[in-house]
Amino acid sequence: MIDFVTAGESHGKALVTVVSGFPSNIEISSEYINEQLKRRQAGYGRGLRMKIETDKAEILSGIRHGKTLGSPISMIIWNKDWENWTDKMNPEPVDVPIEKISIPRPGHADLVGVTKYNFDDIRNSIERSSARETAARVAACSVARKFLSEFGIHVGSFVESIGGIYPKENFIDKFFANKINSNYSAEKLNKISDKSPVRVLDKEHEDKIIRRIKLAKKKGDTLGGTFYVVITGMPIGIGSFVHYDTRLEADLAHSIMSIQAVKGVEIGRGFKMADEYGSAVHDEIVLRKGKISRKTNNAGGIEGGISTGLPIIIRVAMKPIATLMSPIGSIDLSKMKNIKARRERSDFVAAPACAVIAESMAAWSVAKLFLDKFGGDSIEETRANFLNYTGQLEKRLKENFNK
Ligand SMILES: Cc1cc2nc3c(=O)[nH]c(=O)nc-3n(C[C@H](O)[C@H](O)[C@H](O)COP(=O)(O)O)c2cc1C
Ligand SMILES: C=C(O[C@@H]1CC(C(=O)O)=C[C@@H](OP(=O)(O)O)[C@H]1O)C(=O)O
C-alpha cells in the first residue's frame, strides 16, 4: 500500500514529504520532480509569492543513483519566503511583539480554524490550510506519475473555464465521442496546455480569459474556474466494485476534492448524464476488427468502480480565491464588531495551478489501485505481473465464453 504524508507551514522553513510503498528500481530524478513543481507554479493571475519561490525538491532518502530503493522517499522543499518570516514563524518563542490577526476572511479557513483549534491568532489557521502545502503533494505524487508512465499511463489537464468564460468548441467532446486515437497521450495534451499562461487549448479563449482576469483584478476581486484531468493509457481492470473504498472514481474524487478550494468533481459526463435518457449516455459495446470497443466514452473510462481501458475524464470546479482586495463583510474577533475582511498578499486566480495539482493527486489514486492489483517489490516484478494480466485478457474472455 502506497502512502504519503506532508508537513510544513506556508511561511515556515520548508515543506517536507515522506512517500512510502513504491517498488524499487523506478527511474526518477530531482529534475523530473522539479519539472512538475515548476508546472504547479505557473499561471497568469497568481500573486507575488510565486515571484519569490522557485520550488525545488531536495531528495533526502529512498532514491540512489536515480532509482528508487523501495524504502521511504523523503524530500524537502525550502520556502524562500521564510527569511521574511523568521520571527513570525519561529518554532521557538520570540521576544519581539508579533501582531495577531483577528479578522477572518470569508471563504478561507480562518474562522473555522481558530474556533476548532482554540487559537488566539488567525495566522495559526492560515499557515497549514494554505495551498502552499500542495507543492509537497506535487513532489510526492511525481513518484506516482513517473511510476505510471513506465506502463504508458499519462495524466494531463487543461483549463475549461475561468470566471465563466468557456471555449467555443469543447475539445473534450472528442474524448467523450471516443474518437481520440488510442495512441493519443495525456502528455501531448500537457504540451499544448502548458504553453498557455492559463492552460487553455486555444489562443482566442486564452485572450478572453486574460481580459476577464484583468477586469477582476481591477475590481479587487477574484475568480475560480473549471478544468479537466485526463488519464490515458489505462488498462482495463484498475479499481474494484467489491468494496466502497476500492472504487476507482471514489478514490479519484477523494484525492481531488482534498485540494484547497476544489468544490466539485465529475466523472465522465457527470451531472449532464442525469438529464438524459439511458440510451443517450451509456457507451455502446461494439466489435471493431474483432476487438471489443466502445462507441462513446461518456462514462469517462470507469464502470463499476473499475477502469474500462478508455481515457479517464474528470471535470473539476474550483471556487474563486477567498482573499479579496475589495473585501466583503466580516467581523473583528478582538472587538466583536462588524468590519470588512482583511486584505493580504494573494492570488487572484489559481485554477491553472490547481489543474496540475489535480493531475498529481489523480496519478496518486491510480498508482495506488494499480499497485493493489499488480503488487511487486521491484518494478520488474510489477511489470511481469502487469504483462501477464494484460497479455491474456482477450484470450481468457474467449476461452471463458466459447467453451
Ligand atoms: C494553487 C492554489 C492557490 C491558492 N491561493 C490562494 C490565495 O492566494 N489566497 C486565498 O485566499 N486562497 C487561495 N487558495 C484557496 C485557499 O487555500 C482555500 O480556499 C482555503 O484553504 C480554504 O479551503 P476551502 O476553499 O477548500 O474551503 C488557493 C488554492 C489553490 C489550490
Ligand atoms: C504559496 C503558495 O500559494 C499560496 C496559497 C495561499 C492560500 O491561502 O492557499 C495564499 C498565498 O500565499 P501567500 O500568503 O504567501 O502569498 C499563495 O501564494 C503556493 O502555491 O506555493
TrEMBL record:
<dbReference type="InterPro" id="IPR020541">
    <property type="entry name" value="Chorismate_synthase_CS"/>
</dbReference>
<feature type="binding site">
    <location>
        <position position="40"/>
    </location>
    <ligand>
        <name>NADP(+)</name>
    </ligand>
</feature>
<feature type="binding site">
    <location>
        <begin position="128"/>
        <end position="130"/>
    </location>
    <ligand>
        <name>FMN</name>
    </ligand>
</feature>
<dbReference type="GO" id="GO:0009073">
    <property type="term" value="P:aromatic amino acid family biosynthetic process"/>
</dbReference>
<dbReference type="Pfam" id="PF01264">
    <property type="entry name" value="Chorismate_synt"/>
</dbReference>
<keyword id="KW-0456">Lyase</keyword>
<dbReference type="GO" id="GO:0008652">
    <property type="term" value="P:amino acid biosynthetic process"/>
</dbReference>
<comment type="pathway">
    <text>Metabolic intermediate biosynthesis; chorismate biosynthesis; chorismate from D-erythrose 4-phosphate and phosphoenolpyruvate: step 7/7.</text>
</comment>
<feature type="binding site">
    <location>
        <begin position="319"/>
        <end position="323"/>
    </location>
    <ligand>
        <name>FMN</name>
    </ligand>
</feature>
<keyword id="KW-0285">Flavoprotein</keyword>
<protein>
    <recommendedName>
        <fullName>Chorismate synthase</fullName>
        <ecNumber>4.2.3.5</ecNumber>
    </recommendedName>
</protein>
<dbReference type="InterPro" id="IPR035904">
    <property type="entry name" value="Chorismate_synth_AroC_sf"/>
</dbReference>
<keyword id="KW-0274">FAD</keyword>
<feature type="binding site">
    <location>
        <position position="345"/>
    </location>
    <ligand>
        <name>FMN</name>
    </ligand>
</feature>
<comment type="similarity">
    <text>Belongs to the chorismate synthase family.</text>
</comment>
<keyword id="KW-0288">FMN</keyword>
<keyword id="KW-0057">Aromatic amino acid biosynthesis</keyword>
<feature type="binding site">
    <location>
        <position position="46"/>
    </location>
    <ligand>
        <name>NADP(+)</name>
    </ligand>
</feature>
<comment type="function">
    <text>This reaction introduces a second double bond into the aromatic ring system.</text>
</comment>
<dbReference type="GO" id="GO:0009423">
    <property type="term" value="P:chorismate biosynthetic process"/>
</dbReference>
<feature type="binding site">
    <location>
        <begin position="260"/>
        <end position="261"/>
    </location>
    <ligand>
        <name>FMN</name>
    </ligand>
</feature>
<comment type="subunit">
    <text>Homotetramer.</text>
</comment>
<keyword id="KW-0521">NADP</keyword>
<feature type="binding site">
    <location>
        <position position="304"/>
    </location>
    <ligand>
        <name>FMN</name>
    </ligand>
</feature>
<dbReference type="GO" id="GO:0010181">
    <property type="term" value="F:FMN binding"/>
</dbReference>
<dbReference type="GO" id="GO:0005829">
    <property type="term" value="C:cytosol"/>
</dbReference>
<keyword id="KW-0028">Amino-acid biosynthesis</keyword>
<dbReference type="GO" id="GO:0004107">
    <property type="term" value="F:chorismate synthase activity"/>
</dbReference>
<dbReference type="InterPro" id="IPR000453">
    <property type="entry name" value="Chorismate_synth"/>
</dbReference>
